[in-house]
Amino acid sequence: MRLLDLIPGSWLRWAVLTLLGVAIGHTLVMATRLTVWSMAPVVVVWLLIGWYWRWGAAPSVSPHRVFPWALIPLVFWGIFDYLANSFGKVDMGAVFFHLQAGMSEHGGTERTIAAVFHILLTALVLIAYSWLVHRDSRWQRGDRYLAIVLLVANPMFYSMGQRGAAVVADPGAWLERRYVEPVILEAPAQPPNLLVLYLESLERTYGDRERFGDAYADIAALEPEAVVFDNVRQIDNTGWTMAGMIASQCGTPLMPAGLLHDSQFEPLHHVVPGARCLGDLLKEQGYRLTFMGGASTQFAGKGLFYSDHGFDRVLGREHLTERLEDPEYLNSWGLFDDSLYRMVTEEVRQLDRQPGPWAMVSLNLAAHAPVGYPAQSCIDEFGDYDGVDILYSVRCSAWLARNLIERLKGEGLLDNTLVVVASDHLTMRVSEWDALNASERTNTLMMMGNGLTPRYIHRPATTMDTLPTLLEAMGFTIDWHRAGLGVSLLSGEPTLAQHYGLDELNRYMREETALQERLWEGLAPEFHSDGQPQTPPTAPTAPEQP
């Protein structure tokens, strides 16, 4: 504070108030759907109030200097501001899961730079607030009350508090009662192959030409040949890559294990070991399964999940880099999409030469927030990339995915194959953030081939409904047209989203512990007094109907 005392009082006072006003305005924008332009009036109002009450204008210091208690919750608000600025929505489930599953081999150098920038800005805000408290006794008297308000109001702690209350009080089991163990009752005589293309963050919202032009055009060009599910929404604990893949392959949200287990801060050795997922089901039907992704399989438990759930080959950056003609042709996450899709094509050719059905799941990177990673093939086709416009990256992702499908189809590799094109989740904060949030947002999900009649299905759904829909599209018979919490969109059964709405589902999600126990059974099992593990609870014979 001595260094600040050397700066002329009037200039310093307005610098402090302006900095605090900007911090308040930016955090308000991050916590709401207000546009970035809303910051200006917030700052102006703040400065007018400060001018009227003469905050910090003349020293009115109490005899004793005290520690400003509001600094502690301000640090947490700084963390919230960074997470919201980086990802759009602060999802503490994602934070807990990534801390436990591991964040080694991650990409996104931009996030690291942004983190350093936010640390510096948060430090300046803390210094500015300290100056104001020590300069103005009114702020000093109100500091402890402000600290309580800031702590309680932080959105990061809301869902944590609800989940903690559920753990220590009456455990929630609403979702568990509606969970159906995924089971294949009957298989077709000649099961089809399966190709699943996860397109990172490439949500269907981009299909609005008035807002986003032709960015989504190549995916839209596939729709006349597909069953298009155009109302697939996103609920809590499904909004990041691993959560999105687990929701669509296991029919359940990814509820992190941490809050229920003593081992919450230890690395995971298994990912949702209590769930039966797409890979488990297809493996039992004799499928040969491969996952290929441009990023490392070590990030966020991706390799563990696929290895645990029936996949024979799990290939990521660390396995595929050696196949590149140019080992330097990489982005901060891993392989560019043109390289990945060439390798996917080679893998499908090999799978198709062998007897029996196969399944290929791939995950690309081109439209990854915040700016995307367009491949050189796209730059050659569309021209230079400015490094900021996410629509360029979306267009690249869509173009390369369509080219892959057409290439495989041209070689006859999709003749007996169900093709699924899906976004893993809604995009996080990108250059088109305000435009995306101008309407209700939906995920991409379409299925083509295997005799499906092209059409649009508008039923309210979530990514959890993907698993049973996919199984029925492949010709499998499943219990009650359901798997996990999902309902087949090819059936007439109502989905949970259709019957209850997203807000109600999210509310139950925050209170649920029984389903969380099911997903992670075996990770931290309870033991009898003789040291033998207890038998995990079995699923009810029939689910509770919506």
Automatic annotation (TrEMBL):
It comes from the Bacteria. It is found in: Cell membrane. Pfam families: Sulfatase (PF00884). Gene3D superfamilies: Alkaline Phosphatase, subunit A (3.40.720.10). Residues 523-546 are annotated as: Disordered. This is Sulfatase N-terminal domain-containing protein. InterPro entries: Alkaline_phosphatase_core_sf, OpgB/LTA_synthase_biosynth, Sulfatase_N. Its main location: membrane. It is a multi-pass membrane protein. Keywords: Cell membrane, Membrane, Transmembrane, Transmembrane helix. Residues 534-546 have a biased composition (Pro residues). Signal peptide: none annotated. Residues 192-475 form the Sulfatase N-terminal domain. The keyword Cell membrane applies. The chain crosses the membrane at residues 12-30, 36-54, 66-84, 113-133, 145-161. The keyword Membrane applies.
